[in-house]
Amino acid sequence: MPDTTPNVFDTISQSYYELTAAERKTADYVLKHRDRSQYLSIGELAEESGVAEATVSRFCRRLGYKGYNAFKLAIANAGAPKPAAAADKPIRDSDAPIELARKLYAVESEAMLQTLSLLRPAELDRAVAILRGARKVLCMGQGGSMILASEAAHLFSVYDGKFVPVSDSHMQVIAAATLTEADAVLFFSYSGATKDMMETLTVVREQGAKIILITRFPRSPGAQLADVVLQCGSNESPLEHGSVPARIAQLFLLDILFTRVTLTEPDGCRANRQRIAAALADKHL
Asked: Does domain 8-79 have CATH number 1.25.40.10?
């Protein structure tokens, strides 16, 4: 990765006339939309620039970056030294606790509103049908996304015991290799573009099992392998890995999916809740 001085925007400007005509389109977009660029996937930046993904990759390498993620990180480092709850209401050192809380509430509420606006009812119903019909559902993710996958398995336990979390990336591949066409995977990945995820989902696809992906980027590599893509809201820069608003957006989407599934069999879920409550009663003081 190149030195941070000059920053990425200076590097683009200095290298501008060494770029190809197609690469200049990407440069023009990034220079014009400095804040927004750090939130885009490679596919989205390519589409916004009017070029192919391969052009964006060549553009990043020509500037001296190992890949697109390193380029996005450089943009984030160059443009956002202080945390911001929202562009119009940045967090400041002088914020009183209640003011800080209000700013965070605003951005986290916005994450849910974005998710609501991105919700596609037909895709949601397809996901519900897959989860209901599957013999077994593996809940997966990597890093912070695995926490969400574990929460999904916990939530769905009142519906059916077939929801199983698998945390270790090696165990995910092993579990995927034993799936059949009767099974499904519920995968969480904000970026939809991690190596471990692609390795696991490729095996799932080979086995013929269904894939439901919860992600921010519907044109990500992982989305290309999924049967159903449920898109969450909230923009997250490379400096905000695992941000709370992004997790809240995914949890909101999970809650919608979970509630939709349980409403298809309300009597059975109610009975399961009662049995679980009775079994756990002795564990409470």
From this structure: no
Which residue has tokens 């471990």? 196
Q: How far is CA 56 from CA 77, 119, 187, 273, 282, in A?
A: 19, 29, 27, 51, 59
| Per-residue model confidence as pLDDT tens digits over 57-102 | 999 999 999 999 899 989 888 865 445 555 557 788 899 999 999 9
Q: pLDDT > 90: what percent of the chain?
A: 63
Supply the CATH classification number for the domain 119-283.
3.40.50.10490
Q: Each residue of 39-51: pLDDT tens digit?
A: 888 999 999 999 9
Residue with tokens 């200076």: 10
Rounded CA-CA distance 91/47 in Å is 32
The structural domains of the chain, with segments of one domain joined by +, span: 8-79, 119-283
Q: For the CA atoms of the chain, what is the radius of gyration? A: 21
Entry pTM: 0.76
Outline where 119-220 has alpha helix (H).
121-133, 144-156, 169-177, 195-207
Contact present, 43 and 229 (Cβ < 8 Å)? no
d(CA 30, CA 72) in angstroms, rounded, equals 10
Mean pLDDT of the chain: 89
Q: How far is CA 211 from CA 120, 129, 158, 199, 218, in A?
A: 17, 12, 22, 13, 14
Q: Other CB atoms closer than 10 Å to residue 110's CB: what's the count?
A: 18
What is the DSSP secondary structure assignment for residue 90, as one 8-state letter? B
* Beta bridge partners of residue 90, listed in sequence order: 84
